[in-house]
Automatic annotation (TrEMBL):
Domain annotation ABC transporter: ranges: 1-116
Gene: Dsim\GD24433
GO molecular function: ABC-type transporter activity; ATP binding; ATP hydrolysis activity; lipid transporter activity
Gene Ontology cellular-component terms listed: membrane
Annotated ABCA1-4-like C-terminal R2 regulatory domain residues: 192-255
Taxonomic source organism: Drosophila simulans (Fruit fly)
Top-level taxon of the source organism: Eukaryota
Name of the protein this chain belongs to: GD24433
Amino acid sequence: MMTGDERISSGAAYVQGLSLESNMNSIYKMIGYCPQFDALLDDLTGREVLRIFCMLRGVQESRIRQLSEDLAKSFGFMKHIDKQTHAYSGGNKRKLSTAIAVIGSPSVIYLDEPTTGMDPAARRQLWNMVCRIRDSGKSIVLTSHSMEECEALCTRLAIMIKVRRNLEALRQARLSGGFARNPDEQTVPAQMAQQDIDAVKEFVEHEYPNSILQEEYQGILTFYIPLTGVKWSRIFGLMESNRDQLNVEDYSVSQTTLEEIFLEFAKYQREDTRANQ
């Protein structure tokens, strides 16, 4: 829908104030698109493919050669630029497809899993290039199954599991300052008597009223504490000064990862599915 391939069934979307429903022909000039599957002409070289898209984008003839080589160098396939694309590896095809998406300096760039099939070094190189494009003021819409990639590149995130329901869940979680909004994880492992476990619970609830007891198993307690107004140094200080009194054997403090947030939503999805059966 965002690229004009499908008609918008409901809602509205805009690029630079223009509606996708009524101004798609004008919007085509403002967007770049790297599809999930490489749409390349196998019998053409990388240079020829770039030349065609430069001409379609209205790049001046005198600039096409230099621009094509600059893109090939930036995305890391310069030594393959004169090879036919059917001989490219999967990673190099993704690099070429991403390079095509930025031709013409579009204001909005859609990247659909751009690093699929890349080795770690090539993926990092592409990330750096995407960051430079983002920092130049372009808007990038990225879809990815890699939580690591999303954390490295994105400034705003939406997690889609059963689409509408979980987009709403993410919004509510952020507003409440709960699980989805960069909380800290505090784990207190020990084989403690029940009274010691209750004492730890009361202590955490008293010091951090918004904390959530996420898990309790064989003396191991996991709390989620919203970061709002909470300093890590204070958490460590409180635990160290009360450790002996609470009979805590060990503890750790860590920031919740995007992967943990995704898995939490996935868990709710499984629970909803079982409940509806």
